[in-house]
Amino acid sequence: ETGVTQSPTHLIKTRGQQVTLRCSSQSGHNTVSWYQQALGQGPQFIFQYYREEENGRGNFPPRFSGLQFPNYSSELNVNALELDDSALYLCASSPGGGGRTYNEQFFGPGTRLTVL
Amino acid sequence: RKEVEQDPGPFNVPEGATVAFNCTYSNSASQSFFWYRQDCRKEPKLLMSVYSSGNEDGRFTAQLNRASQYISLLIRDSKLSDSATYLCVVNIGDAGNNRKLIWGLGTSLAVNP
User: Fold this and answer.
1) Least CB-CB distance to B46: which of A57, A90, A106?
2) Is the Cβ of B18 closer than 8 Å to some Cβ of chain A?
3) Which residues contact A61 (CB under 8 A, 6 or more apart)?
4) Band of pLDDT at residue B93, cut at 50, 70 and 90
5) Which residues in B lie closer than 8 A to residue A42 (C-beta atoms)?
6) Are the CB atoms for B55 and B73 separated by under 8 Å?
7) Number of other residues whose CB lies within 10 A of the CB of residue B14
8) What is the dihedral of CA A35, A36, A41, A45, to 10 degrees?
9) Which of B1, B14, B15, B104 is deepest in the core (most CB within 10 A)?
10) Confidence of residue A59 (pLDDT cuts 50, 70, 90)
């Protein structure tokens, strides 16, 4: 087990609603990344937070937003849900700092979101 | 051209076989490279980081070819438990703290008895 936890594990929402997903990073890790993975696809990078600041963003619209808290846990918020937002949302933590391990990421089990 | 490309497979090989996957990337400024393994309906798990000098971990060998912009993963003596999807990851972040991590779609491997 990686020590990265996510909640909830499954979620069903309807189009237009808002959702908040949560992630607790592995102890000692100060960097959290969020990914969207549709069925049969590789993970798509949404954004990354490092010490409470956004530190890189993929090609996702502004209705995807996030937060990182002082304890390095994180939230992903998605507004105005669309049907295509149905996917597995993965959170990954990494140790940050310098050296080769900076980008080695450890994933939580994911939240499976279904938008109806 | 996609930023990171992998042959989706599936690769079907017998137990004990040697199998190799390649992953090409388009951005020559890419800095870090990784192979992850993902089992069906599970989260990805880091398999190996890929260093310029190449690296080996038991039956797994990863190599980087910057001139041709690809990384490779070699699995020797395949086991049934190696059946999974193998994902290539490339970091094309800039020299500062900005990070942009691009994932391939994955290569599916099935090892058969």
Assistant:
1) A106
2) no
3) none
4) low
5) 87, 103-106
6) no
7) 9
8) -40
9) B104
10) confident
Region label for A56, one of left (φ > 0), alpha (ψ between -120 and 50) or beta (otherwise): left
Question: What's the mean per-residue pLDDT of chain A?
Answer: 89
In angstroms, what separates the C-alpha of B103 from chain A's closest C-alpha? 6
pLDDT tens, position by position, A6-54: 999 999 999 999 999 999 998 888 889 999 999 888 889 899 898 888 8
The residue assigned the tokens 């800039």 is B94
* DSSP-derived pairing of the beta strands B19-25 and B70-75: antiparallel
Using CB atoms, pick whichever of A2, A42, A56 lies closest to residue B104: A42
Decide which of B95 and A14 is more confident: A14
CB contact under 8 A, A103 and B42: no
CA distances A43 to A58, B39, B65, Å, are 11, 13, 24
| Residues from chain A contacting residue B102 (CB–CB below 8 Å) | 45
Beta strand pairing status for A10-13 and A111-115? Answer: parallel
And the tokens for B90?
């490339």
Q: Extract the runs of DSSP E, i.e. beta strands, from chain A.
A: 5-7, 10-13, 19-24, 31-37, 44-50, 53-57, 64-68, 74-78, 87-94, 106-107, 111-115
Q: How high is the mean pLDDT of chain B?
A: 89
Q: State the Cα–Cα distance between residues A87 and A40, nearest whole angstrom.
A: 10
A38-52, B42-56, B76-90 — most confident range: B76-90
